């Protein structure tokens, strides 16, 4: 029965939705928890920052690459099979990370665990859009999305506490039983509204989109070390753009596209997708930038720099379900416009006081940012998917989830590059001046992106279900 005609969500469906959200939460939590462990990993494995940063970058790439095939897997395989693969990958990958004797074993474990997150996360929203009434989709997306949106902000706090007080390996040991429980709950309760259909896997399209993701990440990751060089920036960027063009051409003309690119012809969907991508870009970028500024410029430890973001994370957790209900009642316009205003106020505040940032100022402005984030992030996902007919929901869901993870990868890479630029601008100055200069550049860029995001949000129009 479709989401538009269902009058009640069964308890089993609720358990399956929030079980999958719990598994995705555990995966994303360890994703950003490792950001504050880089100095520790560099010492333990006797390696460089460039090598250690792949602990996060490889994870994000693997998640994004897995999510690209979400629409195909959800149509081709039983949902219970998908969640069983995702749960198994989360557990096996987590165990490898927890016992890893070298950086390469840690990277392997991260990639395996990322595949688990990449399978679990799209199933959360696939269930909501197919098995929840249209009038309640905002509330369900807000509540389930609260867990997923909370995880990247809570990650540095969790990782900092565990690393400072115990050992970074416990980041994985602690999350394993919770992920295992969430996996079992989902597998027991998940219900698939339609039977799987036999399809041929579009391998060349998959290769091209993965090549795009890898080359784009390589290009932006290299800015902080080699600048805008021909070999390390421009060549990978051009390869990425050519691969992306090739993917769109094959997907548009092939009989079995990996993602139905016709969804991008829907302007309302594309606007929602742009907002979602840009907000997440800044969100993950800030969770990298602010803790690093606190440690490098203010001299605080990993625990303080992680705890600093906790108030904002809790604000997001409380407000996300409420703003979802607000959208169900009032439509997208009011929460979107308020969210845009709050995001501008927060990023403008960060940019204006970039040279005088302190812990209390960061805490306060990050809370305001998370208030705006809560009004927009999950609501634009719901709104965007509501623009699509049922046969395109899988493609839209896969696109949203892929870009959510990949925007975090780009956000981290670009913020890191701008942070490193401070050293180039002031080569003979103190670390405080260098870090502050780089942070200031990153925060002004954030303001420009958020202003663009708010303008797009202001243009959103009310919609009726496309189902």
UniProtKB/TrEMBL annotation:
Alphabetic keyword roster: Membrane, Transmembrane, Transmembrane helix, Transport
Gene3D superfamilies: MFS general substrate transporter like domains, Multidrug resistance protein D
InterPro entries: MFS, MFS_dom, MFS_trans_sf
Superkingdom per UniProt: Bacteria
Domain Major facilitator superfamily (MFS) profile: 1-465
Subcellular location: Cell membrane
Molecular function in Gene Ontology: transmembrane transporter activity
Topology in membrane: Multi-pass membrane protein
SUPFAM superfamilies registered for this protein in UniProt: MFS general substrate transporter
Membrane-crossing segments per the record: 12-31, 51-73, 85-105, 111-128, 140-158, 170-190, 202-221, 233-252, 273-290, 302-320, 341-369, 441-460
PANTHER family, per database record: MAJOR FACILITATOR SUPERFAMILY MULTIDRUG TRANSPORTER MFSC
Protein name: Transport protein
Entry's Gene Ontology cellular component terms: plasma membrane
């Amino acid at each position: 029965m479709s989401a538009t005609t269902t009058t009640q969500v069964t308890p089993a469906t609720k358990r399956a939705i929030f079980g999958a959200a719990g598994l995705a939460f555990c995966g994303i939590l360890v994703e950003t928890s490792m950001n504050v462990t880089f100095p520790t990993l560099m010492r333990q494995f006797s390696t460089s920052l460039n090598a250690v940063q792949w602990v996060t970058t490889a994870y994000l790439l693997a998640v994004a690459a897995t999510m690209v095939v979400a629409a195909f897997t959800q149509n081709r395989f039983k949902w219970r099979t998908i969640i069983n693969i995702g749960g198994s990958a989360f557990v096996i990958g987590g165990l490898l990370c927890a016992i890893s004797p070298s950086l390469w074993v840690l990277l392997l474990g991260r990639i395996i665990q990322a595949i688990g997150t990449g399978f679990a996360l799209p199933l959360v929203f696939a269930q909501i859009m197919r098995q929840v009434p249209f009038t309640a989709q905002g509330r369900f997306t807000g509540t389930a999305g609260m867990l997923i949106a909370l995880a990247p902000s809570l990650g540095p706090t969790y990782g900092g506490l565990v690393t400072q007080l115990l050992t970074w390996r416990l980041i994985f040991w602690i999350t394993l039983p919770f992920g295992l429980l969430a996996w079992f709950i989902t597998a027991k309760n998940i219900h698939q509204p339609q039977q799987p259909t036999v399809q041929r896997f579009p391998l060349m399209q998959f290769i091209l989109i993965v090549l795009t993701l890898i080359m784009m990440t390589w290009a932006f990751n290299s800015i902080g070390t080699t600048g805008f060089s021909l070999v390390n920036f421009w060549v990978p960027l051009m390869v990425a753009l050519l691969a992306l063009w090739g993917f769109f051409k094959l997907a548009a003309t092939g009989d079995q596209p990996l993602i139905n690119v016709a969804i991008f012809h829907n302007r309302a969907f594309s606007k929602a997708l742009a907002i979602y991508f840009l907000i997440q870009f800044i969100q993950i970028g800030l969770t990298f930038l602010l803790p690093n500024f606190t440690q490098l410029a203010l001299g605080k430890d990993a625990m303080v720099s992680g705890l600093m973001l906790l108030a904002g994370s809790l604000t997001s957790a409380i407000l996300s379900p409420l703003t979802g209900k607000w959208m169900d009642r009032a439509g997208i316009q009011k929460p979107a416009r308020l969210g845009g205003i709050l995001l501008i106020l927060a990023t403008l505040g960060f940019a204006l006081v970039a040279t005088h940032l302190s812990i209390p100022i960061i805490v306060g402005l990050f809370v305001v940012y998370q208030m705006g984030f809560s009004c927009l992030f999950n609501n634009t996902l719901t709104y965007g998917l509501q623009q699509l007919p049922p046969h395109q929901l899988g493609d839209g869901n896969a696109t949203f989830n892929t870009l959510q993870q990949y925007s975090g990868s780009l956000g981290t890479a670009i913020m890191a590059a701008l942070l490193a630029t401070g050293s180039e601008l002031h080569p003979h100055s103190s670390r405080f001046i260098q870090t502050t200069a780089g942070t200031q550049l990153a925060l002004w860029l954030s303001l420009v992106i958020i202003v663009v995001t708010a303008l797009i949000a202001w243009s959103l129009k009310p919609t009726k279900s496309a189902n």
